[in-house]
């Protein structure tokens, strides 16, 4: 019995010793781990501090770069705005002359080329030709001399005729027939019997003096103009009655059957008295 108790005691003591040894080992291992963690913590804290410092430095550098770029952008914008303002202030003024205001009718021998340009169908080229020809001949004596300027025809002259005037307008006298030209020999006519007493003799053509007044001449007087046909003379009188009176010889161009070629030949044989034209 004593021996068994002794065995149990020895076994219990051994167990206690083993348990104590295991506990000691565990305690030492835990202490070692804690010491390592404590020694490594300052290093981790230092590394974290260094990393934070680097991040702050990078952020600060980025902010500095951003502010610098903003200042440069503002400076460049201000320079461009200043240059644009200076260019606006120093822009040259337009040198294009404004169109002259003219009052019609124009005095043909005093009007400038710029004033003549305001006439219908007269551009810069024709205006320069008119002034050059005027200087060449020493001034126009009548408006019909414009037909001698290259580029001006009857239609154009008719459009601008009443928009021009001359202080002392004179027209050339119609050219007389050359003297010494023998009259054509009369063809022999067969003998005719005397007309019956009841048949009236043909009246002799009335003697006329040129130029004829368009507002006074009769059809018979107009027929005395070289090349004038009786039908055309009647049409001129009828047209005069229709419009009451001619105000310009160029109105003959409106008569049915009148051509520009014959009008050029006819115009030296007619005129309009100043009293009736007014």
How is the largest sheet built, in terms of strand order? 1-2
Which structural class do the helices and strands define?
Answer: mainly alpha
Distance from first to last alpha carbon = 178 Å
The percent of residues in helical segments reads 40-55%
Evaluate the radius of gyration. 62 Å
User: Residue ranges: pLDDT <50 for 5 or more in a row?
Assistant: 87-92, 198-202
What is the approximate shape?
Answer: rod-shaped
Summarize the helices and strands and which ones pair or pack:
Elements: H1 2-89, E1 106-107, H2 113-116, H3 124-137, H4 154-160, E2 164-165, E3 212-213, H5 219-222, H6 230-243, H7 260-266, E4 270-271, H8 274-277
Parallel strand pairs: 1-2, 3-4
Explain what you see.
The chain is mainly alpha-helical and 278 residues long. The chain has eight helices and four strands, in the order αβαααββαααβα. The chain has helices at residues 2-89, 113-116, 124-137, 154-160, 219-222, 230-243, 260-266, 274-277, and strands at residues 106-107, 164-165, 212-213, 270-271. Strands 1-2 form a two-stranded parallel ribbon. Strands 3-4 form a two-stranded parallel sheet. The N and C termini lie far apart (178 Å).
Summary, kept brief:
With 278 residues, the protein is mainly α. The chain is 51% helix and 3% strand.
Give descriptors for this structure.
8 helices; two-stranded parallel sheet; rod-shaped; single chain; mainly alpha; 278 residues; 4 strands
């Amino acid at each position: 019995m004593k021996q068994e108790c002794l065995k149990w005691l020895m076994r219990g003591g051994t167990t206690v010793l083993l348990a104590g040894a295991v506990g000691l080992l565990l305690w030492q291992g835990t202490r070692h781990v804690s010491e390592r963690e404590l020694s490594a913590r300052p290093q981790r804290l230092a590394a974290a501090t260094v990393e934070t410092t680097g991040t702050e430095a990078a952020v600060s550098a980025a902010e500095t770069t951003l502010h610098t770029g903003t200042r440069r952008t503002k400076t460049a914008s201000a320079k461009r705005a200043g240059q644009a303002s200076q260019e606006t202030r120093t822009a040259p003024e337009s040198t294009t002359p404004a169109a002259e205001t003219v009052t019609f009718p124009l005095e043909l021998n005093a009007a400038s080329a710029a004033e003549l340009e305001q006439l219908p169908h007269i551009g810069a080229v024709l205006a320069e030709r008119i002034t050059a020809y005027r200087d060449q001949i020493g001034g126009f004596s009548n408006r019909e001399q414009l037909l001698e300027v290259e580029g001006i025809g009857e239609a154009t002259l008719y459009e601008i005729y009443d928009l021009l005037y001359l202080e002392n307008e004179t027209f050339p006298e119609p050219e007389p027939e050359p003297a010494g030209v023998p009259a054509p020999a009369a063809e022999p006519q067969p003998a005719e019997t005397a007309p019956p007493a009841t048949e009236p003799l043909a009246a002799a053509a009335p003697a006329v003096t040129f130029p004829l007044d368009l507002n006074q001449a009769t059809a018979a007087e107009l027929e005395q103009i070289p090349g004038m046909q009786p039908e055309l003379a009647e049409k001129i009188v009828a047209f005069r009655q229709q419009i009451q009176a001619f105000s310009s010889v160029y109105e003959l161009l409106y008569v049915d059957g009148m051509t520009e070629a014959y009008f050029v030949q006819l115009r030296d044989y007619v005129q309009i008295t100043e009293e009736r034209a007014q």
